[in-house]
Amino acid sequence: MALEKMDFITERDKQIFEKGTDSFEMKCERVSTAGSVSQRACSFCGSRVVLYPVADAIHLVHGGIGCAAYTWDIRGSLSSGPQLHRSSFCTDLREKEVIYGGETKLREALYHLIDLHKPSAAFVYITCIAGIIGDDVNRICKEVQNKTGVSVIPVQSEGFKGTKKDGYRAACESLMKLIGTVEGPAIPMSINILGDFNIAGETWVIKKYFEQMGINVVSTLTGDARVGQIRNAHRAKLNIVQCSGSMKHLAKMMMEKYDIPFINVSFFGIEDTAKALYDTSDFFNDEKVRNNTKMLVSTEIALIMPLLNEIRKACDGKKAGLYVGGAFKAISLVKALRHIGIKTVLAGTQTGSKEDYEILKTVCENGTVIVDDSNPVELSNFLIEKQVDLFIGGVKERPLAYKLGIGFCDHNHERKICLAGFRGMVNFAREVNASVNSPVWKFVKWRRH
Question: For a Cys-Cys bond, which of 211, 333, 366, 448 suits 20, CB 3.0-4.6 Å?
Answer without folding.
Answer: 366
